[in-house]
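Figure S7 source data.
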Amino acid sequence: MADALSLTRRAALVAGFGAAGYLVANATSITQNAAMARIFEGVEDWTRVAQRTLQSKNGLAPEYRPADISPVFKANGTLNPNTNAYNAHVASNFQNWRLAIKGMVQNPMSLSPADIHRLPAKSQITKHDCVEGWTAIGMWTGVPLGLLLTAAGVSPRARYVVFRCADNLTGEPAKGGEQSPGQYYESISIDDAFHPQTLIAYALNGHPLDVQHGAPLRLRVERQLGYKQAKYIESIEMTDSFASIAGGKGGYWEDRGYEWYAGI
Ligand SMILES: Nc1nc2c(c(=O)[nH]1)N[C@H]1C(S)=C(S)[C@@H](COP(=O)(O)O)O[C@H]1N2
Ligand SMILES: [Mo]
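Tokens for the predicted MTE complex:
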């Protein structure tokens, strides 16, 4: 309830300031400004949808109190993509990073982290659950993915959202045998994408994401296990099938035997 209200109020506030900012800002390209305007136009509709789900409490992952936040949030999998390109982004504080929203959408978009920081934010304190047997409670802040997808105009034929990440993961013998290397990627259903707790997150416990936790942008899809929480996201692609991507099972770990729907 508190969450629904804070989302609404902040959405209204940010939409107001954001629209003004949009009128005076000339730094970004016309297409980017059009994309930002579209996102702000969708805030009211999206807030109504999100509020219904939040009030019904159906299908929500449990949320915790600030006092429950783990003193240390363990990092896992890739701790630093460590490619030349990624290291250059770190050096320039990710100002040239772009998140592409593409595939089966009416309005493809390319957003910078700064663009995303100007959008209505939502924070939630949730428990992360890794198949390796550890959990951690943290507060995530980001923009609801549903808001971005509403603005992008998802085709009715789209069924999945695919996230492509900047890291190439080799895997470790300690985690079930030597894994074949591959670009990390993940996918979720449209329903999970529009769930009000599904965020493109840029902060953990009130601080900008650090490299080990997925800077500059990562997914939070709170009703599923840790490996679905894609870090270092470079693109979001709407599709009707992921059969032709990598091993065809919808994710790096799925291609290596894990379940696609990793419900907690
Ligand atoms: N890009 C990318 N995302 C990833 C991984 C990874 O190796 N690369 N590991 C996954 C796994 S198994 C877990 S448990 C979480 C860990 O997130 P954290 O490092 O912020 O704790 O990220 C998930 N997302
Ligand atoms: Mo994990």
